[in-house]
Design brief:
TIM Barrel; three-stranded mixed β-sheet; seven-stranded parallel β-sheet; alpha/beta
């Protein structure tokens, strides 16, 4: 990957004509606006729009915007046996993050998180829910591509477990199952694989105990570069983010694994460059677009933050990105933010004498 390559984490705007925002935790079909006979065509159009806007902005690596996924986590349980979506269990949701990282008015949201599909038997990968998404992206993308999946720590926390005696056993089983997903996507062909696993941060005491082993199972046999994304949660639900003392420890832990790159939330929590030293020799996908505000970052601000980060991470291992997923933002805001990301990166590229790709010169 070229120095200072730009990209978003994974999700892009999900248009109001496609989904009903506010219904993302409803599992009665009300999330999707089009009727069933028009849904696939509508999703195709939304993917093409997301792809067009990323490429027009000049991003170096693109995704399908995760347009076809109601949830980035539950989307993958259909490809794993041993999970019942009919047997829903009321499961308490617990995070080790401080309470000021979430709004006070989201009790209903946490209740929705609590209503969890249930692990009823051995977990085994059966098929890929993401393979057709990747094939569609490959058919239409003009840039390098990234295929994201959920991580085992996070997925386990979205499930109730009536089968495994210990959570560690269930998490390791999910890691092995999701390894099957990564292998399928790798066989299809992609430039990058991404694993979104914010629970590495939410429950760091657990990650400290089993995180390295879990990553070993998840990445076994994978040769495509894998990016591990660890954030503070969607800004749609967690608007008052503050730096958490465990976050540097997460990077230090992941530096001991076989992940190629660590994708971090940097802008909204106000992290400083000293954090980046914990990443060791890993590539860093640096979140420079805050999802907690609709204010558009300026290219000058992006460039300033990049210059600071480059004092710790060399350009060949530093890649400007968004803090987290963008699916809930208005389209004009998301588009302006990624244009600013490319514009700010180009300022620094010129300063360093790094060639700017033709498709990004206008930014």
């Amino acid at each position: 990957m070229q120095p200072l390559s730009t990209q978003i984490v994974g999700s892009y705007v999900k248009p109001g004509w496609l989904v009903r925002h506010g219904h993302e935790h409803h599992h009665d079909g009300s999330w999707w606006r089009p009727e069933e006979d028009a849904l696939v065509a509508a999703q195709d159009d939304a993917v093409l729009l997301a792809l067009y806007e990323q490429e027009r902005a000049g991003l170096d690596v693109v995704t399908d915007g995760e347009i076809r996924r109601q949830h980035y986590d539950r989307h993958f349980i259909t490809g794993i046996s041993g999970i019942s979506q009919d047997r829903i269990t009321d499961k308490a949701y617990v995070s080790e993050l401080t309470t000021n990282n979430a709004r006070a008015d989201i009790g209903e949201l946490w209740q929705n998180f609590r209503m969890s599909p249930t692990i009823t038997g051995p977990l085994e990968w059966t098929h890929s829910p993401a393979i057709e998404e990747l094939r569609f992206l490959k058919k239409h993308a003009k840039r390098r591509i990234k295929a994201p999946i959920v991580g085992p720590m996070t997925l386990y926390d979205r499930l109730a477990d009536d089968h495994y005696e210990r959570p560690e056993d269930g998490i390791m089983a999910l890691a092995r199952a999701l390894n099957g997903e990564l292998r399928a996507l790798e066989a299809e062909g992609t430039d990058l694989l991404m694993v979104a696993d914010p629970a590495f941060h939410f429950k760091f005491s657990r990650s400290r105990e089993i995180g390295v082993a879990v990553m070993g199972e998840l990445l076994a046999g994978i040769t495509t570069p894998v990016v591990l994304h660890v954030c503070y949660g969607y800004a749609k639900y967690s608007t008052g983010k503050s730096m958490n003392p465990a976050y540097p420890n997460v990077l230090a832990l992941l530096s001991q694994t076989d992940v190629h790159a660590i994708s971090i939330e940097y802008e909204q929590p106000g992290h400083r460059p000293d954090l980046l030293a914990q990443a060791g020799d890993k590539h860093v996908h640096l979140g420079l677009l805050s999802m907690g505000t609709q204010e558009i970052e300026t290219p000058a601000h992006i460039a300033s933050r990049l210059r600071e980060a480059l004092k710790v991470i060399p350009p060949e291992r530093l890649h400007p990105s968004s803090d987290c997923g963008m699916w809930f933002l208005p389209r004009d805001v998301a588009r302006a933010k990624i244009e600013a990301l490319v514009g700010g990166t180009n300022i620094v590229r010129r300063e360093l004498g790094i060639e700017i790709p033709d498709y990004a010169i206008h930014a």
